[in-house]
């Protein structure tokens, strides 16, 4: 038997997986010659040699290829792949395909100093590569989103959509190619996989020739003269994205990607080229009194020409009819066939009452930009949505949001009530396919230690909508509570990407990375958290929950005095805020080396926190440094005794 590993480390790494197409059909001597030739090509890469010289690279042979594991940035494996692809053009007898993904990798060194690696990062890079043919450089969505931050990469990223690969795993694939690197043709192996939505067109011109279209719905501009009306124009945009996504003949850019253009001057042809779409929809919303004016125009991305445009000046009660008309007009303008079930899906609304819809949008806005441990936030959500369901008792989405807020309040603060159970069940009675309702039930089951039922519910929610922000956030918290930090990071990162106001998921990423010993990634997450909390504190300077996450970020970034200043300020504003105290204790214990201060901060919090937050504290890596302290144990035991069987049903 092999001896036990000597060292093991888990890091988020950037993996380039490659193999030789048709390797197994070659004779043995030919196979070795091809591997030797590939090794020579790889060693010619400047990026490979630079990372190797810096000690930030692992090279793992795989028989018919290799995995290159970079520890600096997602750009490195892509740069390396491009360099290799260019050299391979001079080696026509060496057909190679490549896949790139960023994810957790466990590097193991045995007693003989031999290094090997395993983990989700490597496995998914291989799955991506398996989708390709010779010459392809296929990227995961996570890598593509990282690259999109830099304008020089965007024109070369081509969205192929989401497919199911081995073991039922779903992968969102991007093809990377330039004029002299990569393979521009669609991979044949994608057609062998099971598509989960229509793949994007390879280019606007080719898509138009084939009669297949892709579209980006830019966020409609709020022309109401009141920034507080942003929630309404955003809601209109999101609903149109949802409607058009029901049409199988269209590929619609996700809400997350489309909203990166919000509030920015836009060149439509540039957007079309950058996102590789055939058409762009842009518009504006002006809401005043009982009237609404919506303008919309569909633009051909290849020539900036208007395909269709319309202005709607109507009574506010006509808002749903306007949305339906816009969606149908786009379908008609593109001469796309709308199937009967797709027509019904577009016309299906959670409510037909404009007042209830408006109240729900207000509640949803509060949910997306806040922190679930903020009592005032949860109570406001419930008030808005309770009024919505009084107006329309059959509004499933509003019931699901009530359930989410009630669950969070009970989890963090305890108290009476059923913690959202009744509201979640009512939502599912009205719409059994509502992913957010399944997600909240998963969270409720998890806190009741009904883990198998929780897993089934969150799997259902993810299957119904893997792009839902609330669903990904719940999935992340469930994985965190199960101490599966690598998987939790995946969902927290997706939640952060899906909603730019979500600072709490960014804060949780700090904790997860620290728990895995990856300080560099924790610093990156801290920078994201700080930016987001500062955006919240600008208009709401007394938001103590945001200060709690900000203090952790500042401490991680080495800004000790500023972190302590924010703690002092928040405690003066709201000394009873359980969640800010909890986060201040995390900062003091794990990042500021102040055990006494952390325990003093936790005392009043443990006396009042709910069962969910106590369960969270039991597994939180931020408290590992004080977990064996008798005072911490005593506070935890007293909280569990106060809560009774709620936390003892293990």
Q: What is the percent of helical residues? A: 40-55%
Mean pLDDT: 82
Structural class: alpha+beta
In percent, how much strand structure appears in the residues?
15-25%
Quaternary assembly: single chain
Low-confidence stretches: 1-8, 108-115, 194-211, 645-650
C-alpha-based Rg, rounded: 26 Å
Please, how many helices? 28
| Straight-line distance between termini | 36 Å
Quick one: how many beta strands? 15
Biggest sheet character? 9 strands, mixed
Shape call: globular
Would you kindly provide a written description of the structure presented here, covering whatever features stand out?
With 650 residues, the chain is an alpha+beta fold. The longest helix is centred in the last third of the chain and has 19 residues, at 519-537. The chain is globular, with a radius of gyration of 26 Å.
Q: Which descriptors apply to this entry?
A:
about 650 residues; alpha+beta; nine-stranded mixed sheet
Could you give a short description of this structure?
The protein is α+β, with helices and mostly antiparallel strands and 650 residues long.
What's the arrangement of secondary structure elements?
Blueprint: E1 7-20, H1 28-43, H2 46-53, E2 57-61, E3 65-70, H3 75-88, E4 96-109, E5 115-118, H4 120-130, E6 137-140, H5 141-147, E7 157-164, E8 170-176, H6 188-192, E9 194-195, H7 204-210, E10 213-217, E11 221-222, H8 230-245, E12 250-252, H9 255-258, H10 268-275, E13 279-288, E14 291-300, E15 306-315, H11 319-333, H12 340-347, H13 354-368, H14 375-391, H15 396-413, H16 421-430, H17 435-447, H18 451-464, H19 469-481, H20 485-498, H21 503-515, H22 519-537, H23 544-556, H24 560-573, H25 578-591, H26 595-606, H27 611-619, H28 630-643
Helix pairs in contact: 2-3, 8-11, 13-14, 13-15, 14-15, 15-16, 15-17, 15-27, 16-17, 17-18, 17-19, 18-19, 19-20, 20-21, 21-22, 21-23, 22-23, 23-24, 23-25, 24-25, 25-26, 26-28, 27-28
């Amino acid at each position: 038997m092999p001896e036990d590993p000597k060292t093991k480390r888990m890091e988020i790494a950037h993996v380039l997986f490659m193999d030789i197409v048709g390797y197994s059909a070659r004779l043995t001597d030919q196979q070795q010659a091809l591997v030797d030739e590939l090794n020579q090509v790889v060693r010619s890469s400047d990026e490979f040699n630079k990372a190797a010289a810096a000690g930030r690279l692992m090279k793992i042979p795989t028989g018919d290829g290799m995995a290159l594991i970079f520890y600096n940035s997602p750009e490195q494996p892509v740069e390396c792949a491009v360099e290799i692809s260019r050299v391979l053009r001079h080696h026509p007898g060496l057909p190679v395909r490549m896949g790139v993904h960023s994810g957790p990798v466990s590097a193991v060194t045995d007693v003989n100093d031999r290094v090997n690696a395993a983990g989700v990062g490597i496995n998914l890079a291989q799955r991506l590569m398996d989708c390709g043919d010779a010459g392809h450089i296929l990227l995961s969505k996570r890598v593509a989103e990282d690259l999109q931050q830099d304008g020089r990469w965007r024109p070369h990223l081509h969205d192929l959509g989401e497919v199911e690969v081995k073991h039922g795993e779903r992968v969102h694939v991007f093809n990377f190619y330039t004029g002299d690197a990569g393979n521009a043709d669609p991979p044949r192996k994608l057609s062998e996989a099971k598509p989960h939505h229509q793949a994007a067109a390879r280019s606007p011109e080719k898509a138009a020739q084939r009669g297949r279209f892709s579209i980006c719905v830019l966020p409609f501009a709020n022309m109401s003269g009141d920034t507080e009306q942003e929630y309404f124009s955003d809601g209109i945009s999101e609903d149109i994205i949802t409607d058009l996504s029901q049409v199988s003949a269209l590929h619609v850019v996700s809400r997350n990607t489309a909203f990166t253009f919000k509030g920015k001057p836009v060149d439509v042809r540039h957007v079309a080229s950058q996102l590789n779409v055939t058409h762009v929809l842009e518009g504006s919303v002006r809401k005043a009194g009982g009237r609404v004016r919506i303008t919309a125009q569909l633009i051909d991305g290849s020539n900036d020409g208007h395909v269709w445009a319309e202005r709607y000046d109507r009574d506010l009660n006509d808002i749903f009819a306007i949305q339906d008309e816009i969606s149908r007009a786009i379908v008609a303008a593109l001469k796309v066939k709308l199937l009967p079930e797709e027509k019904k899906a577009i016309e299906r609304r959670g409510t037909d009452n404009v007042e209830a819809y408006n109240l729900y949008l207000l509640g949803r806005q509060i949910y997306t930009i806040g922190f679930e441990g903020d009592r005032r936030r949860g109570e406001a959500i419930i008030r808005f949505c309770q009024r919505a369901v009084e107006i329309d008792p059959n509004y499933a989405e509003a019931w699901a949001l009530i359930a989410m807020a009630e669950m969070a309040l009970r989890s963090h603060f305890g108290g009476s009530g059923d913690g959202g159970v009744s509201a979640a069940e009512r939502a599912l009675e009205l719409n059994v396919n509502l992913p957010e309702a399944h997600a909240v039930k998963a969270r409720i089951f998890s806190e009741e230690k009904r883990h198998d039922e929780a897993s089934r519910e969150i799997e259902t929610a993810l299957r119904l909508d893997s792009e839902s922000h609330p669903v990904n956030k719940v999935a992340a918290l469930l994985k965190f509570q199960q101490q599966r930090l690598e998987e939790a990071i995946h969902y927290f990162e997706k939640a952060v990407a899906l909603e730019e106001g979500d600072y709490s998921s960014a804060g949780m990423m700090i904790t997860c990375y620290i728990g895995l010993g990856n300080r560099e990634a924790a610093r990156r997450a801290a920078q994201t958290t700080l930016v987001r909390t500062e955006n919240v504190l600008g208009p709401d300077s007394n938001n103590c929950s945001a200060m709690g996450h900000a203090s952790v970020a500042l401490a991680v970034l080495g800004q000790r005095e500023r972190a302590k200043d924010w703690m002092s300020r928040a405690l003066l504003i709201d000394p009873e805020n359980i969640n800010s105290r909890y986060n201040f204790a995390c900062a003091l214990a794990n990042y500021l080396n102040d055990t006494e201060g952390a325990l003093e901060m936790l005392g009043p919090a443990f006396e009042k926190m709910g069962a969910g937050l106590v369960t969270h504290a039991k597994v939180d890596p931020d408290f590992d440094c004080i977990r064996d302290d008798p005072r911490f144990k005593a506070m935890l035991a007293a909280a569990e005794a106060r809560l009774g069987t709620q936390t003892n049903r293990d």
